[in-house]
Amino acid sequence: MADIPKGSEVKLTHTTMKVLKRFMDEPRKELSGADITRDTKIFTGSLYPILLRLEAAGWLSSHWEDIDPKEAGRPRRRYYRLTATGQRLATEAFNELGFVGGNLAWQG
Question: What is the pLDDT along the chain (108 residues), one digit of tens a residue?
Fold first, then answer.
């Protein structure tokens, strides 16, 4: 991939590509870890390290939701969103790996 900003290189494993595909399905939508787990069936032990790596590389941005956990009756959620750089690099990665018609060519 040409013109990759420093620090934006990410190991594109099958699981990382599943996470990126979920973001690419709705590139402007903010997603919580629970949303991604529900939609991809990737367990949190694998998911959160991927989200941290993608954020550290500049592919994602994140923020904590602005709620009072006691009032909401649940913990705050962290929401992730694909950055413009992340969208561009994910598009390039999918193109290079043969992303065709919503599926990865190498998926069974």
Answer: 444 455 557 888 999 999 999 999 999 999 999 999 999 999 999 999 999 999 999 999 999 999 999 999 999 999 999 999 999 999 999 988 876 555 555 444
Tokens representing 86 are 């992340």
DSSP three-state, residue 17: helix
- How many Å apart are CA 79 and CA 83, to the nearest integer? 13
The b-or-e profile of 22-35 (16+ CB within 10 A means b, else e) is: bbbeeeeebbebee
Going along the chain from its start, the domains and CATH numbers come out as 14-96 (1.10.10.10)
CA distance 19 to 23: 7
pTM of the model: 0.81
